[in-house]
Amino acid sequence: MSTNPSTLTDPMSGFWHDDLATADPEIAAAVGKELARQQDKIELIASENIASKAVLEATGSVFTNKYAEGYPGKRYYGGCDYADVVETLAIERAKQLFGCNFANVQPNSGSQMNQAVFLAMLEPGDTFMGLDLNSGGHLTHGSPVNMSGKWFNPVSYGVTEGEELIDMDAVAATAREHKPKLIICGGTAYSRQWDFAAFRAIADEVGAVLLCDMSHISGLVAGGAHPSPFPHCDIVTSTTHKSLRGPRSGIILWNDEKFTKPLNMAVFPGLQGGPLMHVVAAKAVAFKEALAPEFKTYAHRIVENARALAASLEENGLRIVSGGTDNHSMLVDLTAKDVTGKAAEAGLDRAWLTCNKNGIPFDTRSPFVTSGIRLGTPAGTTRGFGPLEFRQIGQLIAEVVDGLSKNGPEGDAQIEESVRGRVAKLCADFPVYPES
Ligand code: DSN
After folding, report:
1. Which end of the chain is more exposed for a tag (fewer CB within 10 A), N or C?
2. pTM of the model
């Protein structure tokens, strides 16, 4: 260790040695509280998960310091030897995991991965199709407030009013009428399996490129608990932090060489500069974890748990949109209880159950209020909950909602206190980051 006296008087003398608590107590306190929140509350947000210690370590690694614009072997900066190692490993593992020929692991997020596909495949003003946000689609699939809806011409498809399932006949009719250049399947609040072969047939009929944004279900696809979008889809995008359980980021996958140049050029230099190499390293770690046999068990357990949760909610008087779930998530319709999604999210949070309000199909309330909540099982499954625990969680949710139904948005304080006690017991029995 250097004993250079100049470092002793340097106001930044702690630079090489101080941990976060010493260097910045305010931020350290917030990090500590966030850890406690994740330990002490049950995470039911369908798009969240709990990453491994190894993924967190890679995310916080010295790759934070490295610029690596370009791709492995073709960089615009020196010193990229080890950046090339991690990016090549991430690419090879992603290809193996999803059984495809090509992968770009540089997108910084879900929005950017989808923007890259738009940049590569469409011209401004071009028509594309995606699932309506009100039926469980995503902001980047054509919402009027998103770039996808402002710069392109989105045409949406939705779910049927009775069964609340995607109406493939209507998808075909809309595609025939509007002749989109791109069709997107995949969503954020659709709890049924996607019929990728049927989408392929429609895309072929109208000459569209078929994109699957499998962000929500990619962990299930990796573990064989949901059919794969390959070989049906031309391009597949996914965030890596949802059921896939990696760092917050995105990837693009494809099979046909003809897409390689436009997609890679769209990510860099089209949209992004230097890739977040620390996150690329963490993605490689997560893909290795997902290739391990235990991940298959995890993926199937997520679905088993979601079915147990949905059944328990229904037995306790709450309606599940479309009558159940085939994946990790479900929408709970609170209309019959006269409880808004907003009030339910707040009441459940007071009882240490974290979820998000969510519009249900044909919702008459605004997106800030909504008539439903969205629930998911990936995070709870990671901490070790099984169907028994998720049945209990269904009961706890129903108790809180009944309190809200009786008393209005303030809920029933006694019920919420009692639920908090039972949540605390579940969390203590299934700890998160137990050594932290
Ligand atoms: N915001 C994410 C979700 O919660 O589904 C999707 O990007």
Report:
1. N
2. 0.96
Separation of CA 155 and ligand 1 centre (Å): 21
Annotated binding residues for (6S)-5,6,7,8-tetrahydrofolate, written as ranges, equal 133, 137-139, 257, 366-368
Domain assignments of the chain as residue spans, ordered by start: 58-291, 301-429
Domain 58-291 CATH class label: alpha beta
Rounded to the nearest angstrom, the distance between the alpha carbon of 66 and the centre of ligand 1 is: 29
CATH number of 301-429: 3.90.1150.10, 3.75.10.10, 3.30.70.120, 2.70.70.10? 3.90.1150.10
Give first-to-last CA distance, the chain, whole Å. 28
Edge to edge, the sheet with strand 329-333 lists: 319-320, 329-333, 372-376, 356-358
* Torsion sign over Cα 111, 113, 116, 122: negative
Mean pLDDT by 10 residues, the chain (436 residues): 52 86 97 98 98 98 98 98 98 98 98 98 98 94 96 97 95 98 98 98 98 98 98 98 98 98 98 98 99 98 98 98 98 98 98 98 96 98 98 98 98 98 98 94
d(CA 379, CA 363): 27
Q: Are 241 and 83 in contact (CB under 8 A)?
A: no
Q: Which residue has the CA at smallest separation from atom 4 of ligand 1?
A: 47
Distance 55 CA to ligand 1 centre (A): 20
3-state secondary structure of 295: helix
Take atom 1 of ligand 1 and give the residue whose Cα is closest: 47
